[in-house]
Amino acid sequence: MPFSAAIREVSTVRRKIDLDNFQVASVKTARDINRRIVLNLIRKHQPISRAELSRHSRLQRSTVSVITQQLIAERWVRMGAFGNLPRGRKPKFLHLNGERGGIVGVDLRPENTTMMLADLEMRSLAQDSMRTGSDPEEFIAELARRIRRLMSAHSHLAFEGIGMALPGRIDLESNRLVFAPNLAWKSVDLKGPLEAATGLEVELENAANACALAEIWGGAHSESVRNLVTVTVSEGIGAGMVLNGQLVRGATGMAGEWGHVTLQENGPLCKCGNRGCWEACASNSAAVRYFTELEPTQNKPKMSGMPTFDLVLKLAQQGQPQAHAALEKMAHYLGVGVAMTIAALAPDVLVVVGEVTRVWDRVGPIIDGVIASRLSMGSKTQIVPTNPDTQPRLRGTIALVLQKHFGVPHLA
């Protein structure tokens, strides 16, 4: 199979070659690409025979046989049952060996941090959670201790790495967390200390970008979806962008900070220091603020302390007027920002991630109405809410590590 045809099977990136800074592909790179083609085909079509792999990949059967034998020897792939044919040798089906390796995913949020140990098929094996706290050094030490405990409890696994979703942006050169207004940490090195404490490679990514990767790797979208945006709605708002099949980070890693685009010139103060940012108008925190600001009615519940977004959701589902009004206002501004995003990027799919999707029957129509009123040219973008119970942010952290083995390799 020609190298150019092989790379089309796995590469979703279309970029102009930089003639001032390029590297030719070696024979090793071609072999690595073919290996990843086969591995991805097994993952997608399992159970699958070697003959079917040859047809799907357009690789010679002898090449497929060599690659699959190597994958079996390395325990990436396992043999399954024999197939039934009317005549000739019965094929033996191949499966991805999901139990071969373990991946640790970490979803860091301002209040709580959740850890998940998953297998190669993104199935959860164990979970843990802890308070995030205000001291990053104490947090890292406790997080490392809990990860080591997860590893000890599953010592039969070969651990592939740690993926970590962050409520902010990472500097691409230093790998430090440099912008996280809702976390209030300043230039923190999470990668180095965690790698030293666990012995595992750590992949850091903004939570919205991680969710975008999860949708590409494990979402229920067709292979033709090449332009996808995720909007994460939590304490803040972030956007992850996959455009022409490539995750977009920008020159500094700050691409996608739609949450800090101003929607109201004299709007509410945002934690980034500006006023009227999208997240100050449409985040979970904004909905809680709307709820507390509304005039009380006879059936407004009595409570001590600041209400939570979960409480606002629960009250809205019970028909409580203030909670319902707060969600309506939040949904309106979500729609304003989503309309802006669609107008700018025109994605095939826009995925909304967050607890707000639990009441999508209430907020979805409002968002659709705002989009229809603001996009005079119309929109073909499909808006898809995720199910919070599937833990999309944690699935994104697992995808961060999976792409090292299943994604397009670096040229060597």
Protein architecture, described:
The chain is an alpha/beta fold. It folds into three domains: 3-15 and 24-96, Arc Repressor Mutant, subunit A (Orthogonal Bundle), CATH 1.10.10.10; 101-213 and 394-406, ATPase, nucleotide binding domain (Nucleotidyltransferase, domain 5, 2-Layer Sandwich); 222-386, ATPase, nucleotide binding domain (Nucleotidyltransferase, domain 5, 2-Layer Sandwich), CATH 3.30.420.40. It contains 13 helices and 14 strands. It has helices at 3-10, 27-45, 50-57, 61-73, 136-153, 191-198, 207-218, 278-282, 284-293, 309-317, 321-345, 360-374, 392-406, and strands at residues 77-82, 92-96, 101-108, 112-118, 124-131, 158-166, 169-170, 177-179, 202-206, 228-233, 237-243, 246-247, 349-353, 382-385. The strands form four sheets. Strands 5-4-3-6-9 form a five-stranded mixed sheet, with helices on both faces.
Task: Please specify the SSE layout and strand pairing.
Elements: H1 3-10, H2 27-45, H3 50-57, H4 61-73, E1 77-82, E2 92-96, E3 101-108, E4 112-118, E5 124-131, H5 136-153, E6 158-166, E7 169-170, E8 177-179, H6 191-198, E9 202-206, H7 207-218, E10 228-233, E11 237-243, E12 246-247, H8 278-282, H9 284-293, H10 309-317, H11 321-345, E13 349-353, H12 360-374, E14 382-385, H13 392-406
Parallel strand pairs: 3-6, 6-9, 10-13, 13-14
Antiparallel strand pairs: 1-2, 3-4, 4-5, 7-8, 10-11, 11-12
Helix pairs in contact: 1-2, 2-4, 3-4, 5-6, 7-13, 9-11, 10-11, 11-12
Quick overview:
The protein has 412 residues and is of the alpha/beta class. The protein has helices at residues 3-10, 27-45, 50-57, 61-73, 136-153, 191-198, 207-218, 278-282, 284-293, 309-317, 321-345, 360-374, 392-406, and strands spanning 77-82, 92-96, 101-108, 112-118, 124-131, 158-166, 169-170, 177-179, 202-206, 228-233, 237-243, 246-247, 349-353, 382-385. Helix 1 packs across helix 2.
